Amino acid sequence: MSAVEQSKKKIEKMMTLLAKEQAKVMVAEKQEKAREQRATARKLASEKAALLRSKDAHRKIVLGGLVIAAEVDDWDPAEIVGALILVSEQLAAKKDMRGYVREKGVQRMMDRADARAAERAATAARRGER
Q1: Is the pLDDT of residue 13 over 90?
Q2: What is the pTM of this model?
Q3: Which of 67, 62, 74, 59 is nearest to 105 (CA)?
Q4: Phi, psi of 95, deg, nearest 5
Q5: 32 and 46, same structural domain?
Q6: What's the Rg (C-alpha) of the chain?
Q7: Among candidates 89, 70, 117, which has minimal Cα distance to 62?
Q8: 110-114, long-range: CB < 8 A, 24+ apart
């Protein structure tokens, strides 16, 4: 075999090895990209779940505040649920009563807000006297 043929065979062998290495690199890049996409998807799902938990927690805090505003926070949980079911059934039967219930609720929340404002003003006044 001549030197030229040996060189050609050597180049052909090197090109085959190069093609195999390029294929390995392409597969590795594809796998890396897929891993990054999965990681991004997991992160987004985690952030969405955290946001939903946060919204749910906020909603529950608000509802707990309403129980306190109604001054029934010392009731047994079953009593609170029972009372809400009872009122819900009565409101379903008497549609015109819902406005009255809303007015009563608004009045209670306004009274509480006024009482808290008066308490803050009194506290501020006491601090000013010192």
Answers
A1: yes
A2: 0.56
A3: 67
A4: -60, -35
A5: yes
A6: 36
A7: 70
A8: 112/69
Q: Are residues 55 and 83 in the same domain?
A: no
Same domain, 96 and 119: yes
Distance between CA 121 and CA 117 in Å, rounded?
Answer: 6
Q: What is the mean pLDDT of residues 83-96?
A: 92
pLDDT value at position 11?
94
Look at 20-29, 77-86, 90-99 and tell me which has the smallest mean pLDDT.
90-99
CB atoms within 10 A of CB 44: 10
Contact in structure between 83 and 72 (CB atoms under 8 Å):
yes
Q: Which amino acid is at 121?
A: A
- Give residues with Cβ within 8 angstroms of 83, minimum separation 6: 72, 75
With CA atoms as reference, report the closest residue to 25 among 38, 17, 11: 17
Q: What span, in angstroms and rounded, lies between the C-alpha atoms of 18 and 64?
A: 68
Domain of 92 in residue numbering reads as 73-130
